[in-house]
Amino acid sequence: MTTYADIFSKKERVEDMEIYAGSGAVNEQLARYGVKFGIYKNNEFKEQLFPFDMIPRIIDKDEFTYLEKGLKQRVVALNCFINDIYGNKHIVRDGIIPEEFIYAGSGYLPQCDGIKPPKGIYAHIAGIDLVQAKDGDWYVLEDNLRIPSGASYPMIARMISRRSSPDLFTGKHVEDNRNYAAMLRRTMDHVNVGGHTVILTPGRYNAAYFEHSYLAEKTGAHLASGHELIVENDHLYFIDYSGRKERVGAVYRRISDEYLDPMTFRKDSVIGIPHIFDIYRKGNVALINAPGNGVADDKGIYYFVPKMVKYYLGEEPILQNAPTYLPYYKEDMKYVLENFDKLVLKDVAEAGGYGVVFGSKMSSEEKVNFKEMLKSEPRRFIAQEVIDFLDIDIMEKCELLPRKADLRAFVLMGDEPMVWKSGLTRFSRNPDSFIVNSSQGGGFKDTWVLSQ
């Protein structure tokens, strides 16, 4: 494991190092660029900055090679699983996964049954959340296959850091992360069925609107909202500023499944495109990521991913899950109830750090109530051992402080699986918290992957 202290000389560290002195300036520039995220709270939309810490997370070449191999394996297996579930459902018929875990999950969409997307790819962009334990081992915490966000933050932070500290990267042998846009464009072009590529946004009040616009700029795709796209004669068209219609062959959609097409899903959706699902079913447009992917990133399904790797690929999984228990199984329920104080409980339908509770932090009454809920709704929760994350230093008020951090790695599926040699490192700003999500007040770092 490599740290910043290993690649910066003593003279460059802490007080004297330009990276620390430039931290405030970089955050000011990020604010100017509108690098924010939005959250809805108490029925109000609020935008806030995503705080950036300039001490990078550093991953050496050999360690990233190991992660890269495991990430490709995992995402290929997940694509096989989605293809199977909306196809022949062999993994259910063979008893590897109970059918209740498929059909009772909110991510399963019966409307997608029998649909084969262009080139057979479902999860074009996967965000895999990992943590590194203090013993150096890596664990997958979560698979994000619907609309994973976050790649734009390290992209623009690296760009501004280069500008504010020109000598920062000299001689450090850091992989260039500016190729994400090219990787994304390659992924989109691979499945494009003919015509323009658009990034479909619900608009500026979406939590990740900055990313939508930034990726559109960097990839050369059109940034469009639902009212700028129309289905006619079994094809999708983009309406430009002059009213001219131009055919669209691929849509990188940044809106949730249920709002995508009011004719198929939620009838009250005003941000979707009527009948887009009909032409997607016919193969006349590619949707990136495919609708229905939520069947594979349900926290309950997460338990079975190592089994998927063995089942579909005939290989041993390279990356391990965090030790996880399913109260659905009697033996796991028994273990969870007996070891409640040592576990973290997660609601499978929640995201963004919500629905996560630590058994040790509950009152006696809360524990009794939660255990009763667990017994009545065993499919609703998973339980995991609490991994003691590796602490990563952040700079706060000119002082180095250890904080918990995770890594969101990005895997893109084009003509081959590709892992971006960078990633979004998120950290908790609360010294007593393991929850790093931006919606919970976390910050982010650049991730340096070393080339030698």
From TrEMBL:
It comes from the Bacteria. This is Uncharacterized conserved protein, circularly permuted ATPgrasp superfamily. It holds the Pfam family CP_ATPgrasp_2. It comes from Pseudobutyrivibrio xylanivorans. Residues 56-427 form the Circularly permuted ATP-grasp type domain.
